[in-house]
């Protein structure tokens, strides 16, 4: 039976979670090859054991380091680096709060995830977003991925014009277009919602030993 293990972390620059809860602001960082999905669409461009920590509002610690600590608090070792990379990528350019969880017993042998609420405030996009990162140990290392959901005020045809260069239509899923993002940045589903467009971005990654 799944028993989540939780902890809380508050950061001035970024945050993370064993079920871990955090809040913070993500600093601008260099793009991560093949995982820079946060920069896509102009977003990144402009029981349970519990513990709590706080950092000054001007703390220089980045999201990667914060999610790395969150993984450590959860008892995640083999997937700690990938967990941190995914968390850093997902939250780039945002103010966010996250809640992470994994199996209480033998957490390093099981999957882990973090649910993240985010707010973007950039010249190109201002609004709420949500995402999930997840990792799981394998025989050769670790695999994981991220999902981000962001509503855009413009129509989906207008959003298509903002996709990374080289993006192509992969297929249509029951009327919902699925695009392969240029630069090996994952995939995006464009869901029309009235005059706006909800973009669901997905990317996978692995970390081999």
**Outline type:** globular
User: Roughly how much helix do the residues carry, as a percent range?
Assistant: 10-25%
- What's the quaternary structure here? single chain
How many E strands? Answer: 11
Low-confidence parts: 1-18, 26-60
Broad structural category:
mainly beta
Largest sheet: 11 strands, mixed
- Assess the beta-strand content as a share of residues: 35-45%
Order of helices and strands: EEEHHEEEEHEEEE
Mean pLDDT: 76
- Strand arrangement in the largest pleated sheet: 3-1-2-4-5-6-7-11-10-9-8
| Rg (C-alpha, Å) | 17 Å
Describe this protein with a few key phrases.
3 helices, globular, mainly beta, 209 residues, eleven-stranded mixed sheet, disordered N terminus
Question: Secondary-structure map with pairings?
Answer:
Blueprint: E1 7-10, E2 20-25, E3 52-54, H1 63-74, H2 80-91, E4 94-102, E5 112-121, E6 126-138, E7 141-152, H3 156-160, E8 168-173, E9 176-180, E10 187-193, E11 196-208
Helix pairs in contact: 1-2
